[in-house]
Amino acid sequence: MNTQLMQTDVLVIGGGTAGTMAGIKAKQANPNGDVLILEKANIRRSGAIAMGMDGVNTAVIPGHSTPEQYVREVTIANDGIANQKAVYQTGKLGFAVIQELESWGVKFQKDAQGNYDLKQVHRVGKYVLPMPEGKDLKTILTRQVKRHKVRVTNRVMATRVLVQDGRAIGAVGFDVRNGDFVVIQAKAVILCTGACGRLGLPASGYLYGTYENPTNAGDGYAMAYHAGAELSNIECFQINPLIKDYNGPACAYVAGPFGAYTANAEGHRFISCDYWSGQMMLEIYKELHSGKGPVHLKMNHLDEDTISEIETILWANERPSRGRFHAGRGENYRTHGVEMNISEIGLCSGHSASGVWVNERGETTVPGLYAAGDMASVPHNYMIGAFVYGRICGENGMDYSARVDHGDPDREWLEAEKARIYAPLDRPNGVPHTQVEYKLRRLVNDYLQPPKSQHRMEIGLSQFVRYEETLSLMGARDPHELMRCMEVHFIRDCAEMAARASLYRKESRWGLYHYRLDYPEKNNEEWFCNVNLKKDEAGEMVLFKCPVDPYIVSVDLDHEVYDVAVR
Ligand SMILES: Cc1cc2nc3c(=O)[nH]c(=O)nc-3n(C[C@H](O)[C@H](O)[C@H](O)COP(=O)(O)OP(=O)(O)OC[C@H]3O[C@@H](n4cnc5c(N)ncnc54)[C@H](O)[C@@H]3O)c2cc1C
Fold first, then answer.
1. Helix/strand/coil (H, E, C) string of 53-88?
2. Angle formed by the axes of helices 67-77 and 84-103, nearest 10°
3. Relative to the CA of 57, which ligand 1 atom is closest?
4. How far does Cα 488 stand from its chain's mean position?
5. Full-prediction pTM beyond 0.70?
6. Do the Cβ atoms of 158 and 223 come closer than 8 Å?
7. Pocket-forming residues, ligand 1, beta carbon under 6 Å
8. pLDDT one-digit tens code per residue, 373-432
9. 350 C-alpha vs ligand 1 centroid, how far in Å?
């Protein structure tokens, strides 16, 4: 194995939605600066929007809604735990992102007069902007990355952020094809590695059949933790309504504005709003476990033209295998509802609120380290939020890089990290990574899946801590398997963080996301705060309460509750 040494001003780790935008914006901020995107797959088709997207969930378009309305909506949906200044950025800057994407060739739905054709899915306000022709989104972004002369290194997986005197000075990783050890010195580092999608095991049992893009295994959460950064509200899990046995959403978001709705087995509507929130998931959970389950997306009452239009949108974008999946089961939207289930648990701020703590400038608590997208703590940020924070981090990261010099990585530390990464190759006949990962994620399901309880989570925690020993039995026969082994390390780190944070917050909040059987009520008096965690000087995981920053948009949380149950 060779060692590759690289140097750049701004290093972006993860070339998905946030990462490609971070690279472009850093370069726009200073065309003479050097920007490098590191991606463990290939940025042409990597990340959550690899196969495009059928709509923007959170478009704040002037004339339709305001950033203030959006901040209110997210604050209420998130039970009051939100850094409003950070959420405001998404509301304020999202429109400029949409316009810029459009200038690059991305198509958004317009009405006959040429106005953006927004749909109402949220409880209050219209924010959903359909993209029926959004299948080429990622390839359009890749083209812009090239046009802006951002350097790209595909097929390199980052494993750790380099830190010197408490400041981020680069990253290390390895080439997942030829196995080279890669050391990158950078003046600023932007983590954009997406959600932790492989925390729980899907009901299908398939390791990579997750709702989230399966290459996102919590790498950024773990790397930020080991770099000394704070993480926030890791107990607030991501849980989604899925098509049963299929790793994609039922898409009530898309079908709802056409007249479809989520119904129980008796055909009755039981939630009044399909905007994804913990409250909505709790109602789905209750209905599924009542005599009225299972639940489905009901469309068979719609006329032929409407159903055909829904099919055209849903089967061309985002999850193009969807039509084939239904056909394989002999299902037809004209006669069948789409049976829904609850997804595996994960960590994600985009759809939920668990992430690496960032302020409204995208800064983590480690100088020189930024985070954007699904792994950064701005709640319910979805795709436009990832673009907005990609932009913010790209611009601020480039600005920061002009004020510092390159750091020199510690040789001993590098040797130790190299030994850690390559250890599985010394055990080609060791336990296969698939088995080690399967067992770990079964433990996550058994002990962390909500509803949560103290005793179960304590057993889970002790298993996750002990799992370090099992990780050291894993074997790899080539660099690709080595990547999978390193992902299992990241998943274990995330499982421990999820267990500790869930045990720490002794109340229920965010509906199903942190529903504790032993503390079934919300307790604003003691728990109206963020729960943050970090690694202390002794290398221990410590948890602490952090106040919610003063609101900039007033919300009366005693009266404004995100209650979506139809009673
Ligand atoms: C199924 C699905 C449907 C969705 N539907 C919608 C929708 O309709 N509307 C909407 O607004 N939002 C939607 N979203 C949310 C939106 O897509 C995400 O919020 C957004 O794309 C997240 O961007 P990101 O950059 O954080 O992550 P991603 O775009 O997933 O990018 C992360 C990248 O990091 C790379 N990576 C990970 N680890 C490493 C490592 N160690 N080293 C190097 N590279 C690494 C990955 O390969 C990946 O390319 C959906 C998400 C999913 C999963």
1. CCEECCCCCCCCCCHHHHHHHHHHHCCCCCCHHHHH
2. 120
3. 11
4. 17
5. yes
6. yes
7. 13-19, 38-41, 46-49, 53-57, 157-158, 192-194, 211-213, 215-216, 219, 248-249, 318, 350, 373-375, 382-384, 386
8. 999 999 999 999 999 999 999 999 999 999 999 999 999 999 999 999 999 999 999 999
9. 9
